[in-house]
Design goal:
This protein is an alpha+beta fold and 437 residues long. The protein contains ten helices and four strands. Helices cover 64% and strands 15% of the residues. Belongs to the outer membrane factor (OMF) (TC 1.B.17) family.
Length: 437
């Protein structure tokens, strides 16, 4: 093999015992603080449903008095007497709401809040999956960039040595030597920057997983470049406006705001309750000079009609109207955002397919151009600068192709997330591509 042929060797050995995307996602689910907050919020919010239901059910209260001692003095025009006796007893009260408009609204609102929490948790899960995947791919992108810089630096170093030898025997100009040296110095600086960027990307991944990332499975082999199915952007946009988790959550938030308005209006409505009570009292004495033991059972219907509360109810109704308008605005904004995400992700997948294919063709063309330039350099028809320029274009194309492949993979997941279809199966499909060798 000729010495210059070493410039064409850019193969990299795969790392051993590498974590794949599923393993990283598993760590993120266990350790990511944003996901932990989302789960805690979900657990808290779903309790709104039983709290609302409780307002439709009866309440039972027991009050009991321990022995109370009474020391009483009674003065009349004809007597001045003192009484000293003890009393004990209990009271058991049952209340069953028959008509409380605000309670029915609270029950409906609790169910809406719980449903909203379900969709918010789904959205948080999608967000975690995307964040973990993006952080993972960012590390791979930075690792590829560092590998390309190092390989280019090594190739420039070999060409620099060859150019110096050729200059010593009069077969190369001083310009070639200086240009090769300048390119080598630049490659050293680029290597430092790429290594720093890799460390920053790894730190971003560590924040999500809570663990120092080791070697990661790298993308290998040809990608199965597929356009979205169905190949109709409008259908994806419509699905996003309908099924996006944030849209669904905002729909239930609007339903909850409507229930809150009904609760506020209920302040003007009467209430009707069924009440039942049993009380017992045992008095050891009285002003009559003897004790008594009393048991009382009561059953009745209690009606309360609000007449005036200082304008507070009317104010609460006005506030609830404004909150309802706010919730409706947030729903409309969520639909617009979901449609935008679906549109951008759909185009990113379509353009990603075309870009990857174009860059693959460009890489093949640049590879042939480099081979031809090297051959021309050996025959004296091309200069070392020509070799450096052609080599630089090849490495730039490789770097751009690497980024385009990762962008395409992420765009596929983002499109699924925008329409509420993202699942761990999609992550597993991506992981199979990353695990290729």
């Amino acid at each position: 093999m000729r010495p210059v042929a070493l410039l064409l060797l850019f193969g990299l050995a795969p790392p051993a015992a590498a974590d794949d995307l599923l393993a990283v996602y598993g760590k993120a689910r266990a350790n990511d603080t944003v996901w932990a907050q989302a789960r805690a919020n979900y657990q808290a919010t779903i309790e709104k449903a039983p709290q609302g239901r409780a307002q439709l059910l009866p309440t039972l209260n027991l009050s009991a008095a321990s022995t109370n001692t009474t020391d009483q003095r009674v003065i009349t025009p004809t007597s001045d007497r003192s009484y000293d006796y003890s009393t004990k007893g209990y009271s058991l009260t049952l209340t069953q709401p028959l008509y409380r408009k605000q309670n029915f609204a609270a029950y409906s609102q609790g169910r809406a809040d719980a449903a909203r929490a379900e969709h918010e948790l789904t959205g948080a899960e999608h967000d975690l999956l995307l964040r973990a995947t993006q952080a993972y791919l960012n590390v791979l992108t930075a690792q590829d960039a560092l590998d390309f810089v190092r390989t280019e630096k090594a190739a420039i170093e070999r060409l620099l040595a060859l150019t110096q030898r050729n200059f010593n025997v009069g077969a190369a100009s001083l310009v070639d030597v200086h240009e090769a040296q300048a390119r080598y110095d630049l490659a050293v600086a680029q290597e430092i920057a790429a290594a720093n960027d890799l460390e920053l990307r790894r730190e971003a991944l560590r924040v999500i997983t809570g663990d120092d990332p080791g070697a990661l499975a790298r993308l290998g082999g040809a990608l199965d470049l597929r356009a979205p199915e169905p190949a109709d952007m409008d259908r994806w946009i419509e699905a996003a406006r309908r099924d996006n988790p944030q849209v669904r959550a905002r729909e239930y938030a609007l339903a909850g705001a409507r229930d809150e308005l009904e609760k506020s209006r209920a302040g003007h409505y009467p209430t009707l309750d069924l009440t039942a009570a049993r009380s017992y009292s045992d008095a050891g004495g009285s002003t009559l000079g003897y004790g008594s033991e009393t048991t009382t059972n009561q059953v009745g219907i209690q009606l309360q009609v609000p007449l005036f509360q200082g304008g507070g109810v009317s104010s609460k109704v006005r506030e609830s109207y404004a909150r309802q308008d706010e919730a409706a605005g947030r729903l409309d904004q969520a639909r617009r955002t979901a449609a935008q995400q679906a549109r951008e992700s759909y185009l990113a997948v379509i353009n990603g397919v075309a870009r990857v294919r174009a860059l693959e063709q460009a890489q093949a063309s640049n590879q042939r151009a480099l081979e031809s330039t090297i051959l021309g350099y050996e025959r004296g028809a091309r200069t070392g600068v020509d070799v450096l320029n052609t080599q630089r274009e090849l490495f730039r194309t490789r770097r751009d192709l690497s980024q385009a492949r990762y962008d395409y993979l992420l765009a596929r997941l983002r499109l699924k997330a925008a329409t509420g279809q993202l699942s761990e199966d999609d992550l597993a499909d991506t992981n199979r591509l990353l695990a290729q060798r």
